[in-house]
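Working notes for the structural subgroup meeting. M.R. asked for a predicted model of this chain before we commit to crystallization trials. I am recording the input and output together here so anyone reviewing the notebook later can reproduce the run.

Input as submitted:
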Amino acid sequence: MDGRAFRAGRRLASGDLQLLLLALLAEKPSHGYELIKAIEERSGGFYVPSPGMVYPALTWLEEMDYAAVAAEGSKKLYSITDAGREFLREHQEAVEAMLGQLAHFGRRMGRVREVFEGLDEGEETGDSQEIHAARRNLKRALREKHGVTAEEERRIAAILNAAAQEIRGKDKG
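Returned structure, recorded in C-alpha cell form:
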C-alpha cells in the first residue's frame, strides 16, 4: 500500500482498495453499494470499483478485524473497528495520497464533462455558428494557459473582464 494507487490505469491494487474502503468506513458506517457510490462520486466517475472487487476487500477487512459487520435486513452494514482505526493511522500517508488522487480525477472528469457539454452549446442557446466558434476558440485558449504565473492570470482576467464589459456595452446601446 504505497499510495500510488492508479499507476496501472483505472484500477486499484487490492491492498489500496482495502485501505480506501477503510478510510470511507472511518467517515461513516456503510453498505457495500454505498461505498462503491462514494468512490465513484469522489472520482467524478473515473473509478467505479466492481462489486467483485469491493466485497472480497470488505471480507478481508472483516477477517483482519479492521471492520465489523452488522446485519441490516438482507444487507450488511460495515463499520470500522478500533484495530481498523489503528491500521488506518499507520497508513495515513497512503490514504491521503489516494483520496487526493480521487479528488484530482474528480476535478479532471468535471472539466472533461464541461468540454463535452459545451460541444452542443451553440445549438442549445441559439447562438450563431460564429459565436459558437468564438466561444470554443476562447475555451481552447484558456485551457492552453492553464498553470501560468499569477501575473499572467491577472493579465488574462483583465482581458476577459474588458471583453465582457465591451459585450455588455454593445448590448445596452
